[in-house]
């Protein structure tokens, strides 16, 4: 069944591409969120959550690190390619001049950001509220470059992708007694959902009409999460995965009610949980050799500054690994996820 849906998606894409004659399927792509989709906005920030050094990016264009938390392309890069773009939405904070380079969209995401404002502040990252301010600036720049009516059709026709929530749990709630002693995981997820709802309403208020939101990944299966919270087990941490499933259920309910209450909004939930869980629990069936350990260093914990050129044990071939570092999928895993994103997000394009 999975293959037939992928086949349909591919077929639909082929048809759409032929119709589009080399034009992207949508005018622009705007991306918000955390390290899973950050393409370098954290490079200039006084944060430890960075990846603008090798071995990050070793399988990317020119084998250069960009600030992507991966050995190569992110799922959103591959999604941009699938949509027919010939370049990726640039990291907004890295643009020396902002003008024509924003016509096809921009990336505002920041590693260690989340729905919960204090998560980003904890790591000196860019909170979603500030990412939204940057998006507002970019709208004004677009009007200047393209004129008002062109800018508004870019804004209403663009796809907006949001990926957040993992950092709120893994890099804040689970390790922060000021949170986990005060709130149950269920209560904390209610707080995140309120933040999510107001973010979508604000984005809608700025003209966004086609929004794709990724679910929480199976955070209990991240190599670093198993190392930190798995009590010497090598299995996914069930408690963390249950929290993610619970959060995703609320995300779904809330998204449906937002869709009903905001006229003209297409809001699609893009499921990351199941595809990634399948890769982790059935790696060999999906062409992977290793799912417990990541490629970088020991593969048990390293991420960001701990994953560097001196990290001992970094694997030679990242395509055999589901995870690149302790928190982030490899490019090979991202390719699988991007296929699922396109299949799930078809309704945003049509």
From TrEMBL:
Cleavable signal peptide: 1-22
One Pfam match: Lipase_GDSL
Keywords of the record: Signal
GO molecular function ontology, one term from the record: hydrolase activity, acting on ester bonds
SUPFAM superfamilies: SGNH hydrolase (SSF52266)
InterPro entries documented for this protein: GDSL, GDSL_lipolytic_enzyme, SGNH_hydro_sf, SGNH_plant_lipase-like
Spans through the membrane: none
Source domain of life: Eukaryota
Family: Belongs to the 'GDSL' lipolytic enzyme family.
Name of the protein in its database record: GDSL esterase/lipase
Species: Lotus japonicus
């Amino acid at each position: 069944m999975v293959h037939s849906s992928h086949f349909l998606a591919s077929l639909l894409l082929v048809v759409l591409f032929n119709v589009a004659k080399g034009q992207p399927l949508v005018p622009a792509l705007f991306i918000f969120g955390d390290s899973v989709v950050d393409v370098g906005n954290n490079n200039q920030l006084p944060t430890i959550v960075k990846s603008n050094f090798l071995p990050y990016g070793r399988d990317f264009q020119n084998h250069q690190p960009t600030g992507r938390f991966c050995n190569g392309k992110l799922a959103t890069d591959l999604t941009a390619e699938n949509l027919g773009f010939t370049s990726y939405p640039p990291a907004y904070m890295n643009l020396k001049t902002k003008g024509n380079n924003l016509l096809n969209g921009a990336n505002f995401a920041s590693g260690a950001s989340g729905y919960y404002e204090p998560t980003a502040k904890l790591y000196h990252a860019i909170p979603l509220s500030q990412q939204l301010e940057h998006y507002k600036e970019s709208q004004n720049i677009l009007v200047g470059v393209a004129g008002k009516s062109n800018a508004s059709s870019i804004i209403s026709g663009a796809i907006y992708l949001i990926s957040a929530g993992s950092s709120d749990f893994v890099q804040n709630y689970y390790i922060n007694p000021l949170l986990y002693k005060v709130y149950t995981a269920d209560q904390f997820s209610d707080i995140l959902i309120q933040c999510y709802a107001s973010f979508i309403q604000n984005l809608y208020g700025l003209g966004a009409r086609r929004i794709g939101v990724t679910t929480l990944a199976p955070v209990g299966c991240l190599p670093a999460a198993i190392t930190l919270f798995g009590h010497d087990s090598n299995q996914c941490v069930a408690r963390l995965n249950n929290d993610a499933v619970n959060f995703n259920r609320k995300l779904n309910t809330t998204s449906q009610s937002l869709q009903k209450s905001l006229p003209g909004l297409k809001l699609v939930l893009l499921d990351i949980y199941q595809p990634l869980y399948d890769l982790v629990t059935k790696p060999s069936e999906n062409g992977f050799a290793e799912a417990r350990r990541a490629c970088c260093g020991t593969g048990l914990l390293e991420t960001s500054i701990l994953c560097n050129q001196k990290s001992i044990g970094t694997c030679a071939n990242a395509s055999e690994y589901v995870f690149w570092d302790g928190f982030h999928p490899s490019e090979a895993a991202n390719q699988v996820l991007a296929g699922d994103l396109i299949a799930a997000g078809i309704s945003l394009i049509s």
